[in-house]
Amino acid sequence: MAERVESQPSSKAEEAVRSVLSALAAQGAFRTPKLRRADMREFKLVSPHRVFLIPLAILKGDQKAELTDVGWRFIIEVNGEGIASAEAISRPNGQFQFSGLNEGPLVDNLVDTLKGVDILGQGFQPRLVLAPGVNTAALWLKKAGGSEFCLAETDVVVQLVPIHHDRSLRTLTPVPEFISSLKSLASALQQGGAKGG
Fold first, then answer.
1. How is 26-55 classified by DSSP, letter by letter?
2. What span, in angstroms and rounded, lies between the C-alpha atoms of 85 and 108?
3. CA-CA distance, 97 to 18, in Å (whole number)?
4. Distance between CA 74 and CA 45 in Å, rounded?
5. Closest CA to 133 of 65, 73, 86
6. Residues 105-157: pLDDT tens digits?
7. Percent of the chain with pLDDT over 90
8. Using CA of residue 57, residue 68, residue 151, residue 108, what is the dihedral sign?
9. CB count, 10 Å around CB of 127?
10. pLDDT greater than 90 at residue 35
């Protein structure tokens, strides 16, 4: 039986992120534009969410989409504005290790989506699900109950990257439709029909 995934962030995950951010702020050592310009003495870690990966091998086969638990990601907020994200990955010994910062479009899309999706108040847990093999990220809204490591049919997702032309940023997509679209992308890769970029 798979270990239950926490719905609240481990204090160890938050401390792994906070200690690195505090050290970088004290040294003025941020290299990305938004973090470099911000007064990082005032940063807050908000909107904690678990991060999961969908391996490409699953999307190319007929296996059930069981996910890989990566760790926790936090939005870095300064003066009420979400400007970046920071991640702590799970280690085999139960500890967490800081793994990086991000200021890219995914952060802006995720912040906007978390603010705009009404379903978050209805017992759904926000998580980030990544399918790097097909360059896709989505906000996974998980309904309580069931396997912690599978996208259930009672869950919904909001695709963040890339956004299909026929959807708005906050479109709720049923899980079967989302998985089907990922498998189509994976099939195109397998047949050499996908373009790099």
1. HHT---SHHHHHS-GGG-EEEEEEEEEE--
2. 10
3. 11
4. 6
5. 65
6. 889 889 888 887 766 667 788 899 999 888 899 999 998 777 788 888 889 89
7. 41
8. negative
9. 23
10. yes
